[in-house]
Amino acid sequence: MKKDLFVKFLGVILIFIILVTWFYPYSFFSFNKSITYDEDNLVIKDYLKEIDDFKKYYNSQTKEDLTNNRTQFILQMYEQDWLISKKPIKIKYQDLDKILLEVKESRQIMMDLAFQETYSKDSKEFLKYAIESCITIENSIEELKHSKYHSRKTINRQFRNIHRSIIGNFDLFVTFYTRR
Question: What is the rounded distance in angstroms from the CA atom of residue 8 to the CA atom of residue 91?
Answer without folding.
Answer: 34
